[in-house]
Amino acid sequence: MKKIIIILLATFLLVGCNQKIENKVEEKNNSVMPENPISKTFFYLGTVIDIHIFEGNDVLDGIEEKIVFYDNLFNRKTKTSDTYLLNEKGQYKVHKDTLKLIETSIKYSKMSEGYFDITINPIVNLWNIGTDDARVPSENEITEALKTVDYKNISINGDEVTLNNNATIDLGGIAKGFIADDIAKYMRENGVKKAIINLGGNVYVIGNSPKNVPWNIGVKDPFTGDVLLKVMGEDFSVVTSGVYERFFEQDGKMFHHIFNPFTGYPMYNDFLSLTVVSKHSIDGDALSTALFNLGPEKAFELANEAGLYIIGITKDKTIFISNGLFDNTKVFDESYKVIIK
């Protein structure tokens, strides 16, 4: 289980999804003063969600309604959801938001040459990493499952989506980013000036901090769990994919949850974690895994093409940082080598 430590008005430690949150503020307060933010913790989308409003109106009820709506729409295990019905029927007329999410997923699949792929669902189900049923599947099981993994198996005609060759989808790799962006838009439209949205580690900050200085978002050291570096700014999103987030060990080997969609096995390369800093959370959510899979050289090429900033932490304790982001970061551990890309 991953851990995120929230220290309001100071630094946020970003570690990804499915985390335990410590130092929580009270569930809900009536003041918008920085010392006493309007806050609430939810559990939807299979993860912990924290909302903190430091300046602006109390819109927590509206936010929860949105989260519940999207959870019911996108959750592949909810029998009335678009995702479940599409997977069951193979062809289904979906809600406009589901359609937008699938179309955006295909765009990112093309951009990443298939390293982001929502049809990886059968591989995820085989391994079950993050559950008590996690296991190493047989080669035959993986070979069979891979026959259906290909984003090109998705075709769209109007609002009707068809899954060919027995493909199934899982929107979990992009949905939180989509929802975070929509919540941020809703909050701004309803008078919120300063806030933090944390959807299971997808962190989005609105405005600047309550002290009227840039927010500090901390990125975790994969080796120690401490804050390794911080990213400073306002109105931006930070999303990290890391091998330490969800994994299990068998016969002395670690199997993590970041899969190579072409092999059906966890991706092992120089990266231990990959962080995307962007204006839109959906970009970071979709591409953090794909960029991790690509490794240091190709990751920065794709990030530059997509207009994103990234931070890659490798096994040899090197931190790769996008050139345009370097001045807005601070590294705390001098034992790491820093390379600007």
Q: How would you describe the overall organization of this protein?
A:
Strands 4-5-9-10-13-16-17-18-20 form a nine-stranded mixed sheet, with helices on one face. The protein has a four-stranded mixed sheet with strand order 2-11-12-19, with no helix packed on it. Strands 6-8-7 form a three-stranded antiparallel sheet, covered by helices on one side. It is globular. It has helices at residues 60-74, 82-89, 96-111, 121-127, 139-146, 175-189, 281-306; strands at 2-5, 11-14, 19-22, 38-44, 47-55, 91-93, 154-157, 160-163, 194-199, 202-206, 215-220, 227-233, 236-242, 247-250, 253-256, 271-278, 309-314, 318-321, 329-331, 337-340. Helix 1 (60-74) packs antiparallel against helix 6 (175-189) and helix 6 (175-189) crosses helix 7. With 341 residues, it is of the alpha+beta class. The longest helix is centred in the C-terminal third of the chain and has 26 residues, at 281-306.
Brief overview, please?
The chain has helices at 60-74, 82-89, 96-111, 121-127, 139-146, 175-189, 281-306, and strands spanning 2-5, 11-14, 19-22, 38-44, 47-55, 91-93, 154-157, 160-163, 194-199, 202-206, 215-220, 227-233, 236-242, 247-250, 253-256, 271-278, 309-314, 318-321, 329-331, 337-340.
Comma- or semicolon-separated keywords:
disordered N terminus, nine-stranded mixed sheet, T-fold, alpha+beta, four-stranded mixed sheet, 2 domains, 341 residues, globular, 30% strand, 28% helix
List the helices and strands and how they pair.
Layout: E1 2-5, E2 11-14, E3 19-22, E4 38-44, E5 47-55, H1 60-74, H2 82-89, E6 91-93, H3 96-111, H4 121-127, H5 139-146, E7 154-157, E8 160-163, H6 175-189, E9 194-199, E10 202-206, E11 215-220, E12 227-233, E13 236-242, E14 247-250, E15 253-256, E16 271-278, H7 281-306, E17 309-314, E18 318-321, E19 329-331, E20 337-340
Parallel strand pairs: 1-3, 2-11, 18-20
Antiparallel strand pairs: 4-5, 5-9, 6-8, 7-8, 9-10, 10-13, 11-12, 12-19, 13-16, 14-15, 16-17, 17-18
